[in-house]
Give the backbone structure.
Amino acid sequence: MKISTKCSLALHSLIIIALFGSKKITSDIIAQSTGCNPVIIRNLMGRLKKAGILNIQRGTGGASLRIDPKDITIWAVYNAVDPKSLSGFIGVHPNPSNTCPVGSKIHALLSVPHQKMEEAVRQVMSEYTLAELIQEFQQMNG
């Protein structure tokens, strides 16, 4: 139970597009950097386009950011490419006994703490922007 790699792949892609956007950035270029299949990258880019984060040129190819990196949070990217995996982030065993006093109430008992944990993850993902990630990347490279 974890958040899938779709979000990190999308962030990796967006950082490349932001840093090298003056050049034609294609799914093949991003696939080489991410070590991922270009089809997966194209699917992610399509989701980012649908979410209003990317512009994608058909035909000759290429992608560019539609909005400023300071306005793109990790949460926005995650929500665009993999909105359902957070609900599976914290699992509860599916078949507790209804005849057991604990088993019959375990889902209800854990629902509030699990909701709070999911909200904490959402909050942290909302605090970081693509601009901050780009800045940290640039500092790493001196």
User: Anything to note?
Assistant: Helices lie at 6-20, 27-34, 38-50, 74-81, 106-127, 130-140. The radius of gyration is 19 Å. The CA atoms of residues 3 and 91 lie 12 Å apart.
